[in-house]
Amino acid sequence: MDTNKTLLTIAMMLVTLYWTTARGQSESYAPTVEKLRTFYAETNKTYFNNELPQNVRISIFDSKTVMGHTDTDADGTVHIFIDRQSHPIEKEAEMTEAHEMCHLRSESPFDESEEFQACMVDLAKRGAFKGIW
Length: 133
Ligand SMILES: [Zn+2]
What we know:
Elements: H1 3-26, H2 33-48, E1 57-61, E2 68-72, E3 78-83, H3 90-106, H4 114-125
The structure holds zinc ion.
C-alpha cells in the first residue's frame, strides 16, 4: 500500500475528528458561567428594574444536596452557585438562577416565603420563563 496515501487518509481522519469535536463543543447546550452571567444581567434589567446587585459572582459547582444556592462572599459580593449535575442544559440552569434571583429579591435566602413565591409567579406571568416552560 502507498505510504503517502495511508498518511493522507490518517490526516484526513484526524482533521474530521477535530472538527466534529470542536463543533460539538460550540453547539453544546450545557450551562457556562458566561451564559449564566448574561441571563442574570438581562433578567435583572428586564424583570427586576436592575434593582438586584449588578456585580455578582456566579459559579457552576458540584453539589450532592442542592440545585443551587446563594451566598455572600467575605468581600460582600453576592455569589450564586448552580449545580452542574442537575443542570445538563443551560435553560434548566437559568430556571434555577431565576429562583436564586427571587431569593435575592425577597431577602429570604433559605426559605421559599410567600414573597419569594410571588416573585416567581410574577416572573412567569411576565414571560421570563419563555423557552424554559
Ligand atoms: Zn430556594
